[in-house]
Design brief:
Organism: Nocardioides endophyticus
Pfam families: Cytochrom_C_asm (PF01578)
Radius of gyration: 23 Å
Shape: flat
Strand order of the largest sheet: 1-2
Distance between the termini: 48 Å
Number of strands: 2
Keywords: Cytochrome c-type biogenesis, Membrane, Transmembrane, Transmembrane helix
Strand content: under 5%
Subcellular location: Membrane
Protein name: C-type cytochrome biogenesis protein CcsB
Structural class: mainly alpha
Number of domains: 2
Helix content: 55-70%
Order of helices and strands: HEEHHHHHHHH
Number of helices: 9
Amino acid sequence: MTDAAWESLSNQAVAAAGLLYFLALLAHLVEWASLRKVPLASGAAARDSIDIPGGVAVATGPHSDEAEGRARRTALFGRLGFLITCIAVAVQAVSLFARGMAADPNRVPWGNMYEFTLTGTFVVAFLYVVLYRKFRLAWMAPIVLAFVLTVLMVAVIWLYAPVAPLTEALSSYWLVIHVVSAIIATGAFTLGGITSALYLVKARSLSKNGPQETGYVARLPQPEALDRVSYRLHAFGFPVWTFAVLITGPIWAHQAWSSYWNWDPKEVWAFITWVVYAAYLHARTTAGWKGRNAAILALVGVATLWFNFIGINYFSTTSQHSYAGGAKQIAPLEPAPALSRDSA
């Protein structure tokens, strides 16, 4: 295949992945809308029940055939949504592979902000699929899919850039090591931030409505479970982020700029993000922070993370990592040659 054919395949796969994410979102919205009519099991009724998204028990006693049928149809939409999500993740992986093959020479698909955004949304969706059964994340489906679909649309509409070769400074194996670790941590922190936000919503709903909760929030796991999932996601992402920010980043910077630390805005904000998440984990393990305070600190962390990802690229004029608009390359960029006194 020619480079143009690979690029065309990548664009088509991105469009197909977006459509599949949209269909998966619709399936989950139908699922959760149907759950409003499905009674929750409680007390002795929990013995005669079936499970639906999030491990919620649905009453299916001997006199609830209609409720049981509705619950099973609802579960079918949930399985359909998850299956479509898995296919969308596979199609998006094809788009990334084709994007790398479209370059001459072939390269990893992380040459500009468009490609980095594609990879970031892929990792968020991929981690969701991988951790779906381990953490019983069915309750997270509508939020994750809406997030991935929105960011993917932003990338296609505003950040798209034609395939181009990497700059000389980017042609390094450190690009793979540094960016892979940063993207994996970003995906984990994003899922953790979503869980923390849902924790605050669930806790507020319980304090306000008590057992009379209704709708989507009523089907969320209990706050303690949400808090535990959030902590595990952050505990996974933090060492990976540490490896990316404090180890591979400085090594690559020294290789490209002859300095381990340059006070570049993106370096500074990456370190701020590291400090916030370090404080989050430290507070949980030493001060016993849980619940609301921990969730708020986690949201501060994800805010600094995404400002570092998007804000620095658009608002900083001095960052050597700037690749705003998609056409510029991910740093490290080579410094401009100094002007001699005669040329000045």
